[in-house]
Structures are given as structure tokens and as C-alpha cells.
Amino acid sequence: MAGSTQPASAGAAAKAPQQKVHIADTTMTISNWWKHVDWLNVTLIIGIPIYGLVQSYWVPLQLYTAIWAVLYYYMTGIGITAGYHRLWAHCSFSATLPLKIYLAAVGGGAVEGSIRWWARGHRSHHRYTDTDKDPYSVRKGLLYSHIGWMVMKQNPKRIGRADITDLNEDPVVVWQHRNYLKVVAFMGLIFPMLVAGFGWGDWFGGFIYAGILRIAFVQQATFCVNSLAHWLGDQPFDDRNSPRDHVITALITMGEGYHNFHHEFPSDYRNAIQWFQYDPTKWIIWTWKQLGLAYDLKQFRHNEIEKGRVQQLQKKIDQRRAKLDWGIPLDQLPVMEWDDYVDQAKNGRGLMAIAGVVHDVTDFIKDHPGGKAMINAGIGKDATAMFNGGVYNHSNAAHNLLSTMRVGVIRGGCEVEIWKRAQRENKDVELFRDENGQRIIRAGNQVTKVPEAISTAGAA
Ligand SMILES: [Zn+2]
Ligand SMILES: [Zn+2]
């Protein structure tokens, strides 16, 4: 009886214990939501900052403590941007041992996890940007990418794989990972308190302002790299994924705001490439190099960067071009016999053949800038020469406008033959099309434009 009602669970219990389903893979309900929450992280990134805010109501902020808190904010922030991010996650430069120890210490003081954990997630983020394997995919929402991914439990098995063998071989990284809680307690809270306490006697102020509240600000600032930098700004290098460039994000994140560039050239020690762009992390890495503390600063060649920029511009131009009316593509126009063309024109249809292409200008006659008489003179004739200088050498804009009026091609018309031949030989055709297969018409290159001046004798 029991076996028939619960066969599955009975069978599972009898055999070896099955793998437990991770809480993150179950649906959230009113009764189990608290199991989905990562309470340790909630305490570290929400609870403690709230405690600090409440305390700040009673603890007066002294000037020296304020200066120290801001200074230590930058020190620990640089620990993340230059250390955790550019040095360890991306190996964009090499550091001497003293610099590594310094960065591992102040980076730990930002309370964002160990280098090993942080860099592993970040490498997955770069490898699987915007997918389910991206640990902080912005596709799951701005708030999720900012803080939700830490506040809610994640199944670590679902995060994309990333190779961290180099980090496992780095003694500074391994030591920091093993002693992480001690590092956090000392560099996050005790050290800033000691400085303010021994320095000017403000022990509790140092704890609250240079410790707790400074941690909260550094955390929120660097979280913006995962949220704001994937949401606000331009995409000058590639727009297939979410990373974006914006000066506001750069100002908040110590230069990590040129994130579109960064995702394209992740091992470049710079995030901003123009001298006037705000990237203090880059400036400080460069300074360390001058001091002999950093070396092997990696940089992509200008040529490679420009190629990315040009290709993205090209893509934008293709998109703009695709929105415009360029006339019916030549290969989709019906083929007309010359006599049929002449007959239709005689019967009152405003048809005009130019370079083998037939245009219906009926509605345009009254608007023709050169007057009705001039345009009427070409109807029913081969107006190629008249249009191209015989009577008036029409502008590029005129050729463009004319192309929107085309309705057919004359059998044996020269351009059509050229197009057919090119297609037969299967060469050069691609050169005239964008990546969506749209034909590219450059200025002065309309079919109706005849490159050499034509004598008027024949047409007149
Ligand atoms: Zn990113
Ligand atoms: Zn990165």
C-alpha cells in the first residue's frame, strides 16, 4: 500500500542518497522564500550598512575621520579595480610581490569576497556575458545584476566554468582566500579604526565612517560595474551584448565605466583610452610602473581598437541605410521591352528610361525643379544622356530620388547586364551589400549615373 502511493520517494530512500536539489533551482513561495535568501550576504551588504547609518546619527563626524574615510575609500576601491579586477581577473599587468600584498590587503578591505572567488565569477561574467551562466547577468534585471545575485542564493554549478589555475598558483591569492575572514575583519574594520584611534583619538568614528559606511560606499560603487555599466551609455565597439561606456559610471567606479571597451579588450590595462577620459585606476597602474612596482602593462594596438570602432560604425550605418527607401532593388524589377516602354509613355504614363532603368515620374512632373518642359522632353525616350549632363548634370540627390521612382528595366539595359554578369561570375557582388544583404549605394554610384560625359547629339 505504502509502496503504491509513494513509489518514487520510497525507491530513492532505499538506494544511495540522491543529489539534493539546490534551493536556487526550486520555485520561491511564501513558505520557503527565506531559504532562498543568502543571509550572510544580506548581513554583510545590507544589514551592517544600515547599522552604520543608524550609528552615524549619534557619532559626530570629525574632519580628520572624514578625510581618512574618503582616502581609505579610494585605497580599497583601487584594491578592487586595479587589484581584483585588472590584475587578477584579467592579468592586464604584472605586479611585484609588495604591490600584490598591498592590493590583496586593501581589496579585502572592500569586503567583496576573496580574490579567488571574485575573479572566478568575473571570468565567467566575461565568458558568458548576458547568458544564464553569467553570475550577474543584467538580462535578469538591473537590480539583480547590482545586488540581487548576492542577496539571493545562486546554484554555484549554474555559473559558467572559468579557468583559475593561475590564481590557484598565486600564493598571495591562496593565502588571502584561506584567511579571508581575518583579512576582512582587520582591513575592513579594525585597521581604519586603529588609524583614526591612534591618529586623533576618534576610535568609534573611525569604526563607523572609515569602516562600515566606507565599506558600504565602496561596495555600492563597484556593484555599479555589474549593473550601471551594462545599462547606461554608448556601445562604440560592439552592441551585441549589454556592456556600455558612460562617464557617470566611470566617475562612480574609479574608471571602470568604459565597459563596452573593456568587454571587447578585457586584457588591456586601460578602460578609458582617451587621455581626457576619467580612469584613475589606469593612471595609478601607470604610476606604479614608473615606480617599478608594476610591469608588463598590456595594451591593444590602436589599429585593433579602431577596427572595432569602424565595424560598429558600419553596423550603425547599415541600420540607418536599411530604414531608407532606395527604390525597388534592380533584380526585383520587371523586365520591359523597349517598344512596350515607348507605347506606355505615349498612352500618358510618365515613363522615363535612364541607363536601362524605367522610372515612373508622372507624379513628379509638376515638382521638377527644372520645369515641366524639361522633364517632359525625356518621357518615352532614352533620357540617359539628358539626365547626365546632356541637358542638366543632375545632382546625387536627384539620382537618389529618381531611384525611388523606378518601375522596370529595359531588356538588355546596360546596368542590368553588368549586374547579371557579376552575379554569374559570383564576384564582387558581396562588396555591394551590407551584412543584411541590403545593397549599398554610395554617393555618385546610382545606376542612373553614367560616369563619362555623354554627347547630347544622340539624345537630342
Ligand atoms: Zn561586465
Ligand atoms: Zn572585467
UniProtKB/TrEMBL annotation:
Top-rank taxon, per record: Eukaryota
InterPro entries linked to this entry: Acyl-CoA_deSatase_haem/ster-bd, Acyl-CoA_DS, Cyt_B5-like_heme/steroid-bd, Cyt_B5-like_heme/steroid_sf, Cyt_B5_heme-BS, FA_desaturase_dom, FADS-1_CS
Cofactor list: Fe(2+)
Key word Signal present: no
EC number(s) on file: 1.14.19.1
Cofactor note: Expected to bind 2 Fe(2+) ions per subunit.
Domain Cytochrome b5 heme-binding: 333-411
Enzyme class, spelled out: oxidoreductase
Topology within the bilayer: Multi-pass membrane protein
Any one of the GO CC terms: endoplasmic reticulum membrane
Keywords: Electron transport, Fatty acid biosynthesis, Fatty acid metabolism, Heme, Iron, Lipid biosynthesis, Lipid metabolism, Membrane, Metal-binding, Oxidoreductase, Transmembrane, Transmembrane helix, Transport
Transmembrane segments: 39-59, 66-87, 183-201
Entry's Gene Ontology BP terms: unsaturated fatty acid biosynthetic process
Localization annotation: Membrane
Reactions it catalyzes: octadecanoyl-CoA + 2 Fe(II)-[cytochrome b5] + O2 + 2 H(+) = (9Z)-octadecenoyl-CoA + 2 Fe(III)-[cytochrome b5] + 2 H2O
Primary localization: membrane
SUPFAM superfamilies: Cytochrome b5-like heme/steroid binding domain
GO molecular function: heme binding; iron ion binding; stearoyl-CoA 9-desaturase activity
Function: Stearoyl-CoA desaturase that utilizes O(2) and electrons from reduced cytochrome b5 to introduce the first double bond into saturated fatty acyl-CoA substrates.
Similarity comment: Belongs to the fatty acid desaturase type 1 family.
Protein name: Acyl-CoA desaturase
Source organism (scientific name): Polytolypa hystricis (strain UAMH7299)
